[in-house]
Design goal:
Layout (H helix, E strand, L loop, with lengths): L14 H14 L8 E4 L8 E6 L2 E7 L12 H11 L9 E5 L9 E5 L16 H19 L17 H15 L6 H12 L8 E3 L8 E3 L6 E4 L6 E3 L1 H9 L6 H4 L7 H4 L4 H12 L7 H25 L7 H5 L2 H15 L1
Antiparallel strand pairs: 1-2, 2-3, 3-5, 4-5, 6-9, 7-8
Helix pairs in contact: 3-9, 4-10, 5-10, 5-12, 6-10, 10-12
Length: about 350
């Protein structure tokens, strides 16, 4: 985790909860001592995340939000499991220390992991970073997602982490259901996507560990080198089609900064950032494939999925249990994201 904190007051833990948390950590985390000082960390829209300072050491606590939650959302137990399983792989992840599923400690389940000092980048255009470093940073992103997709998931104990068959069909059903459960208004573009996507579902199956939210802002980079020290936010990880996962990552090239932290509209050559086609070719080279069939469908699916996620953020904001103070603003991007997805379809027709 980066050192960025929100500057907000202490999180809403009572004195009794802090005492219970300290006792739990002293019991379950080797060499943990003292009473933790807790500071909210910025960036997450789903699960509240905190920096713990205790005994001269820093840790990160990630918990489920309180209150009413969407079914299958906020899966911190899955996050903990996949990070622990990948610890001895070539995928850079933080060390995890303990998973607590007892909600009586601080009000909801949580896990504790190592604090990773480094750089985070919210803007994919990397302002302030020299052009030659931008190119190297994108090479590193490509390398790490390729590394993840080549992991032998059975060998690291994740053979039951998801259902390999019919990944896209199940994902369409899941995100349509979650969108309906969090719907606050009718979005015509979303209705078009919900109708079009199942009717044009490609029959293509590959299986790997998929991160589900592989974006530049979910990485901790070395303080000075273009090297990823930790991949974060594994809440949406499962077994699935790696090409769909990669298309989610590449959605950045298709959306504008106003639609959702995108690169569309930037002069990529001047910035030193690879064009989408070149970036996809590099992924193909590193994973031993000629091309990616159904590429545009995968992009559209991920725009639909992202719109559903953003709608869920808006719904949580309206219900008062969002993880971020920016939740309502972020959630309202569901409409332009859905519209961007439908524009991709119209360009294909």
């Amino acid at each position: 985790m980066s050192a960025a904190t929100s500057g907000a007051p202490q999180p809403p833990f009572s004195a009794e909860q802090l005492d219970a948390l300290a006792h739990y950590l002293r019991t379950h985390v080797t060499q943990f001592s003292g009473l933790p000082v807790i500071k909210p960390l910025t960036g997450g829209q789903s699960n509240p995340t905190y920096l713990l300072e205790a005994g001269g050491q820093n840790y990160v606590l990630r918990k489920k939000p309180p209150g009413k939650l969407l079914n299958s959302a906020h899966a911190i137990e899955r996050e903990y499991r996949v990070i622990a399983a990948l610890r001895d792989s070539s995928v850079p992840v933080p060390q995890v220390y303990a998973l607590c599923e007892d909600a009586s400690i601080i009000g909801s389940p949580f896990y504790v992991m190592a604090f990773v000092q480094g750089r985070t980048f919210l803007d994919p255009s990397l302002p302030g970073v020299p052009a030659e470093q931008r190119s190297a940073i994108y090479d590193e992103l490509n390398r790490v997602i390729c590394t993840l997709h080549k992991v032998d998931y059975a060998a690291c104990g994740l053979e039951d982490f998801g259902k390999p068959a019919n990944y896209l069909g199940r994902q369409l059903a899941r995100w349509t259901r979650q969108y309906r459960e969090s719907e606050t208004e009718k979005i015509p573009a979303m209705e078009h996507l919900i109708e079009w996507l199942p009717q044009n579902l490609p029959l293509a199956e590959e299986t790997s560990i998929v991160h589900g939210d592989f974006r530049i802002d979910n990485m901790i980079f070395h303080p000075t080198e273009p090297r990823i020290l930790a991949v974060l936010d594994w809440e949406l990880s499962t077994l699935g089609n790696p090409l769909v996962d990669f298309a989610y990552h590449c959605m950045t090239w298709r959306v504008t900064p106003d639609e959702f932290r995108g690169l569309s509209g930037h002069d990529l050559a001047a910035l030193g950032i690879p064009a989408e086609d070149d970036y996809v070719k590099k992924y193909c080279q590193q994973t031993g494939r000629e091309s990616i069939p159904h590429w545009n469908y995968y992009i559209v699916f991920n725009m639909f999925r992202m719109a559903a996620i953003l709608q869920g953020i808006l719904w949580r904001s309206k219900n008062g249990n969002a993880a971020s103070a920016e939740a309502e603003k972020t959630g309202r991007l569901a409409i332009p994201m859905a519209q961007a997805g439908w524009r991709q379809v119209e360009a294909m027709l």
